[in-house]
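Exam prep: given the inputs below (a chain plus zinc ion), describe the expected output before reading on.
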Amino acid sequence: MFFLLCCGMTKHKLKQATTLPYLSYVRNELEITNTRVKKWADWIPESDVYEAFYEQRSVIIPIPVCDWSFLVCLHEIGHISTGDRVFGYLREYNAEQWAIKRAKQSYNIVCDEYVEDAKVYVKGHLLANLIHDGLELQKIRPYVLDWLGESHTTLAQNLVELKAQQSC
Ligand SMILES: [Zn+2]
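Solution:
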């Protein structure tokens, strides 16, 4: 997924940031979920190198240095924990919910900016599934619509606008 520079950090500060206690939190979650790290990558906001590999139960995650990068780690581990789904919107929704709830319940970490970004991300997948993958409006899970603050009407309007843009 894509990310803003978290917590108002400059790149210089980011380099100096301590990875504790986030690193021990992540190691704890890896152990609980039986997930292996394929690669620890540097934390680069907006990078799309982070990934989950379902079959191998492994992830490429950033070295966590702030709330945002910690949530990205949980997002990828969340993919392993919540499993694959046919539609991308549901796969991403499940991973986001898992990450956001886990961060709050287990570590008392809440990052409103991350949640807002997660909604944009899930909605992007939802629109792509509607346009390209044969997902029908009526079949979208209602709890996803609730969380996004969307309805069939607002999404239908978005689709009309997107199709109009594409035909220009
Ligand atoms: Zn994801």
